[in-house]
Amino acid sequence: MEIRKKKKVGVLLLQLGTPDSPSVKDVKIYLKEFLNDPRVIDYKWLPRTLLVNGIIIPFRVRGSSKIYKELWELSGGISPLAKYTESKKKLLQERFKDDDVTVHMAMRYRVPTMESVLEEMRLQNYDHIIVLPLFPQYASASGGTAIDKAVKIISDWWVIPEISTISDFYDHEAYIDAIVERSKEFDIKSYDKIMFSYHGLPDRHVDKVYDDGLCEDQPCETEMNDKNRFCYKAQCYATTRLIAEKIGLTEDDYTVSFQSRLTKKWLTPFSDKVIEEWAEEGAKRVLAFSPAFVADCLETLVEIGVEYDEDFKKMGGEIVQLVPSTNDHPRLIDCLEDLVRQKM
């Protein structure tokens, strides 16, 4: 009797994406692809097209290009998101050197494209493909759109292998540990305010999670339940509670907030407004975590590390200190390895 060999497994790590360069041309191409995604701006085609291509991109592209140039300068002339995603791929591959597992990496927007990487994977004839978006908390505009596109591409193949997807890992112990370890680089007691700043979302995005009622009807700030299990806001608060518990913080010691908003109808409180309020209250030193990102990027290094810090100092504060993202911390790689092995 022939013995079936171990399954040949392909792992696809997915990140949001980054412009090819900080030039106006490349940033425009990136923003056009990103913002026209109906899971990002969930309007019908015509109003979304008019809004994105007629208003947002023309009026924001040069400013965005300037910010990306600042990011590149802070990161040694390279996109930190691309750098650390590639590093994750290599480090995770080392964890499977004794298994028939190959780790790939692609970006939801720009390069390496999901189409090209998945075509490479198709040619490898994997028995099992594991799709792992690198977003700890689930949101339709991040992990949701990455999984959606991967499944759509694979669905066009003549031979469709076993497919597993990982929606989130907001409460994985190793992911939490990686953030806690990063925090040990700082004397937490020397800061009078602690912020857990997550990327913002429109209120309607979290409301869509519920078949009846709204996000505000759920106790998302204090508990997880069957209804809010996939609510981004609830997962953000759950992540924060787990980190705080390991660090030894009480609920009175920190504030959860949301950054990068486009309108007032986004998740609150807004991080920049919290910083402003703290400055008015006389706070001097702020320690800022950004757990939604597993790689430093525009939102961490520039928005928090530079812009919030500069604004806070102008209002009389001393420093807004960013806790670096998990990047390629060994405990984060432990998390990714465990997620993959669970699916295997």
TrEMBL record:
<keyword id="KW-0350">Heme biosynthesis</keyword>
<dbReference type="GO" id="GO:0004325">
    <property type="term" value="F:ferrochelatase activity"/>
</dbReference>
<keyword id="KW-0627">Porphyrin biosynthesis</keyword>
<dbReference type="Pfam" id="PF00762">
    <property type="entry name" value="Ferrochelatase"/>
</dbReference>
<dbReference type="GO" id="GO:0046872">
    <property type="term" value="F:metal ion binding"/>
</dbReference>
<comment type="function">
    <text>Catalyzes the ferrous insertion into protoporphyrin IX.</text>
</comment>
<protein>
    <recommendedName>
        <fullName>Ferrochelatase</fullName>
        <ecNumber>4.98.1.1</ecNumber>
    </recommendedName>
</protein>
<keyword id="KW-0456">Lyase</keyword>
<keyword id="KW-0963">Cytoplasm</keyword>
<comment type="pathway">
    <text>Porphyrin-containing compound metabolism; protoheme biosynthesis; protoheme from protoporphyrin-IX: step 1/1.</text>
</comment>
<dbReference type="InterPro" id="IPR033659">
    <property type="entry name" value="Ferrochelatase_N"/>
</dbReference>
<keyword id="KW-0479">Metal-binding</keyword>
<feature type="binding site">
    <location>
        <position position="199"/>
    </location>
    <ligand>
        <name>Fe(2+)</name>
    </ligand>
</feature>
<dbReference type="GO" id="GO:0005737">
    <property type="term" value="C:cytoplasm"/>
</dbReference>
<dbReference type="InterPro" id="IPR033644">
    <property type="entry name" value="Ferrochelatase_C"/>
</dbReference>
<feature type="binding site">
    <location>
        <position position="299"/>
    </location>
    <ligand>
        <name>Fe(2+)</name>
    </ligand>
</feature>
<dbReference type="GO" id="GO:0006783">
    <property type="term" value="P:heme biosynthetic process"/>
</dbReference>
<dbReference type="InterPro" id="IPR001015">
    <property type="entry name" value="Ferrochelatase"/>
</dbReference>
<comment type="similarity">
    <text>Belongs to the ferrochelatase family.</text>
</comment>
<keyword id="KW-0408">Iron</keyword>
